[in-house]
Amino acid sequence: MDIPGEYIVHESEHWIVNHHLTSRLPGYLMLGSRAPVDSLADLPDQALADMGRLMARLQRAMEQALAPRWLYIGRFGHVPGCPLHFHFIPVHDWVEALFWADERYRALQQFGSLEHALSKTDGAELTLFVWREFGESPTPPKVLGRGIPEVIAAVRERL
Questions:
Q1: CB crowding 14-37: b at 16 or more within 10 Å, else e
Q2: Domains by residue range for the chain, with CATH
Q3: Is the pTM of this model over 0.85?
Q4: FRET partner for 118 with CA separation of 20 to 30 A, picked from 49, 79, 144, 155?
Q5: What is the 3-state secondary structure (H, E, C) of 117-142?
Q6: 89 pLDDT higher than 80
């Protein structure tokens, strides 16, 4: 996958960190393997060792640069041919407030424990919100704070 240079945050021998190409949530970063594998078990030992250190550095840099309320880190993998990668999703207070203000997402409360759903934001539900609203919606929510180029620069500086 070709990643435009302005979206690249950091590169190493085994890894590339870039802003998510289709998300309009500033700071939604991807940590992707340079090796064409889709399993941790298939990575070279050095890539695995570097991964842990880089994930920790990236988390620290994002927390310092962006000060999100939550930082979700996840691995999914539904795109055939796409190398192993991890999502780093900063969730700010304003993103969580948008989630709670959007009544469509209250339908999710009928699943699981309502006792906790009304008092806590569920990470899976909020991740779905970020994907749908900032990644797929033709009219994404208004961003509060810095834009994507400024956020990329701030994280680069701390890495």
A1: bbbbbbbeebbbbbbbbbbbeeee
A2: 5-151 (3.30.428.10)
A3: yes
A4: 144
A5: HCCCCCHHHHHHHHHHHHHHCCCCCC
A6: yes
